[in-house]
Design goal:
Elements: E1 60-63, H1 65-71, H2 79-92, E2 96-100, H3 106-117, E3 126-132, H4 135-144, E4 152-159, H5 162-169, H6 173-191, E5 197-204, H7 211-224, E6 233-239, H8 246-259, E7 266-272, H9 279-288, E8 293-296, H10 310-319, H11 331-342, H12 363-383, H13 420-431, H14 437-454, H15 460-471, E9 479-489, E10 492-501, E11 504-511, H16 515-525, E12 531-541, E13 546-556, E14 559-567, H17 570-591
Parallel strand pairs: 1-8, 2-3, 3-4, 4-5, 5-6, 6-7, 7-8
Antiparallel strand pairs: 9-10, 10-11, 12-13, 13-14
Helix pairs in contact: 2-11, 4-6, 6-7, 8-9, 12-13, 13-14, 16-17
Length: 592
């Protein structure tokens, strides 16, 4: 009898009284060939503790990239790549590392010998080696670790699920139990006397094995190996092939946690795979259910859809305020090393490490992020604290990219889905151009026209180029500034302006008004009316030098528009903006 109540879903022809939103046609896939997990594994657990628990600390992480991950590579790692990967994991802070399957290949055997005979493994790092429950292969495995000073775990495995027993091993339950215990006795014979050796057993395909049989076998092996709290045995319970929703795996782990003999002398470990895409969830729920140790690969490499991704698991803890106990502060360097060693690229949407995971293209997301950054800075200033010490509450960014060594350059990128907030953020962050809200709206429309026409992303330098072409081009045809002078005499301000309009020089001197108003007055006298509605000043950072930038909103007979001017002088930059508006106005008048 299953501990799970059934949740009915339509099968066969959709009933005529099905709600409109659920009138789906039947697929052409032969789903009838498969059995659901509840007919294969019944977990005798009626009350569960894991749903009410929460994660409060990191488990023991055990990267298996050099063994399980390596076995899944089209081109297994050569010794140089293995060493580089091992040194990365040590630098990141992993204290237990599975380094190989020494009875499977000479390359793996030689690498274990390298670790044994060199100083690349710090004394506090535990080395794990992997072996089947076969006497000759166990002997070869023990040979590979002779002389090693580090703590060592000999990890023995045997598949225990019914299909594997019947099809692969051709053994009944009792026969297989004896095979496993024979392997356990061989390990004791070859290595039981060594003080730095501990033991691990994995009932492979645990999640498809009858719960009573797993308990029987595991209890037998911990008794054989005389597990004690001082010398605990690791029982590793793999979801070798994912076959159920994560709550089922959690129930299986909790059942083991509650019913294993010598529980205080057992380190309960899990090794989820990702066939259903739920490896992360399985691992997290397994920890809630009593698991103390997690095996997996950094970024999730492994057979089929991979081993569980222990980088994502660790950073999920970080995002909840829990120290993951592993250093991901330079995640791009970690990624580059893993990609080099595996010869497999990490996907751009991979959690935390992908190139695009902190990037927003959507206009609404960009606007929220821009406002979130501003609020974060304001809170830090108000509390007189570093921005790194303020609680992180920026929309759409679950962690601060700076935590993992990322800067903010790629947080916002612009394509046809982007909006004014993101565009404004990029111009301000990259070039110091602060766009007033109404100019944001105007420029976003221009960007949209460009990206719609090309279908391509537009980078910050292209944004600046477009901005300059629309509002700031240096064309002086028709109207040109010849001279600008502003002086004060006897308390009276005086501004002199000289312009060349269509080849003819015009000058004017005006009292008690500034350069912008003086320029517009001289233009009005030449029947070029430019009404200035607003003026905004900032600086344009384009290199070692910083020019003044003036943005003006103006109105003429054709409506309301924007123009910009730049110069080392703030006053000249403002006049240049007015002249840019005047040229556009003159062109409008000429075409009327």
């Amino acid at each position: 009898m299953s501990a799970f109540p059934a949740i009915s879903t339509p099968s066969g022809p959709v009933p005529s009284d099905a709600p409109a939103w659920n009138r789906q046609r039947r697929s052409q896939m032969p789903s009838h060939r498969y059995r659901d997990v509840y007919t294969r594994v019944v977990v005798p657990l009626s009350e569960r503790d894991w749903p009410s628990r929460r994660l409060t600390q990191a488990p023991l992480w055990v990267p298996v990239d050099l063994r399980d991950g390596n076995q899944a590579l089209p081109e297994p790692m050569d010794p140089a790549r293995k060493r580089r990967f091992f040194e990365l994991m040590v630098a990141m802070g992993y204290k237990e590392i599975e380094i190989g399957y020494p009875s499977a290949s000479q390359t793996d055997f030689d690498f274990v010998r390298l670790v044994a005979e060199s100083d690349i493994a710090p004394d506090d790092v535990t080395i794990v080696v992997f072996t089947p429950a076969r006497r000759d292969l166990i002997a070869r495995t023990v040979d590979s670790i002779r002389g090693i000073r580090n703590p060592v775990v000999i990890h023995m495995y045997t598949a225990t699920a019914p299909t594997w027993r019947d099809v692969v091993l051709d053994k009944g339950r009792d026969e297989l139990r004896e095979l496993i215990l024979a392997g356990g006795r061989d390990i004791l014979e070859f290595a039981g006397h060594l003080p730095n050796i501990r033991f691990q057993f994995s009932p492979e395909v645990f999640n498809l094995t009858e719960p009573d049989y797993v308990i029987e076998v595991c209890d037998a092996i911990t008794e054989l190996w005389d597990a004690t709290p001082e010398r605990p045995v690791i029982l590793n319970l793999p979801a070798t092939v994912e076959i159920a929703t994560p709550n089922v795996y959690a129930d299986q782990i909790e059942h083991m946690h509650k019913h294993l003999a010598r529980r205080d002398a057992v380190i309960l470990s899990v090794h989820p795979h990702n066939d259903r895409g739920t490896g992360i969830a399985c691992a997290e729920l397994a920890i809630l259910a009593g698991a103390q140790r997690v095996e997996g690969c950094i970024f999730g490499n492994g057979e089929r859809t991979g081993n569980v991704d222990i980088a994502t698991l660790a950073l999920n803890l970080h995002a909840q305020g829990i120290d993951p106990m592993i250093d991901f502060s330079d995640i791009d360097e970690i990624r580059r090393t893993v990609e080099y060693c595996n010869r497999i690229d990490v996907h751009s949407r991979h959690p935390y490490v992908g190139d695009l995971v902190h990037t927003a293209f959507s206009g609404t997301h960009q606007d929220a992020i821009k406002k979130g950054f501003a609020e974060h800075r304001n809170r830090a200033a108000a509390e007189n604290r570093s921005e790194r010490d303020i609680e992180w509450q920026v929309p759409y960014l679950p962690i601060d990219p700076a935590d993992i060594g990322r800067n903010y350059d790629a947080v916002i990128r612009v394509n046809s889905q982007s909006g004014k907030g993101g565009i404004a953020y990029l111009l301000e962050a990259e070039y110091g151009i602060e766009l007033p809200r109404r100019l944001q709206i105007d420029f976003a429309r221009r960007v949209q026209e460009r990206t719609d026409a090309t279908g391509l992303e537009i980078d910050p330098s292209q944004l600046l180029e477009l901005f300059e072409s629309v509002y700031l081009n240096s064309d002086t045809d028709g109207i040109e500034l010849i001279d600008l002078e502003s002086v004060s005499h006897d308390g009276i301000g005086r501004t002199g302006v000289s312009l060349r309009i269509d080849g003819v020089e015009h000058s004017g001197t005006y009292d008690d008004i500034g350069p912008v108003e003086a320029t517009t007055r001289l233009l009005e006298e030449q029947r070029i009316g430019v009404e200035i509605l607003s003026l905004h000043q900032s600086s344009l950072k384009t290199g070692n030098d910083s020019d003044a930038l003036t943005l003006i909103e103006y109105r003429n007979s054709a409506g309301t528009h924007w123009a910009a001017g730049r110069d080392r002088s703030v006053l000249t930059a403002s006049v240049n903006a007015v002249l840019r508006a005047a040229r556009a106005t003159a062109a409008t008048l000429a075409s009327a």
